[in-house]
Design a protein that fits this description.
Elements: H1 2-26, H2 40-63
Length: 66
Amino acid sequence: MNLLEWYKTDLKMVNQLYMDGRQLVNRVDENSPLSSNMPPIAGAISWTNSLLERIRDPMERLQCLP
């Protein structure tokens, strides 16, 4: 159960990172999470893929548990 609580907390954190980052991207803020050396679309894809990977790996590990 502790693992699930930890994962739930991490999911909420990733969601908040996404929502905050999305607002910065929409405002074209210099503090946005996008890489400065990438075009905007490629940077957004790379950023969202990194968030997805952050939640995907633990989910795959949790699914292997009995």
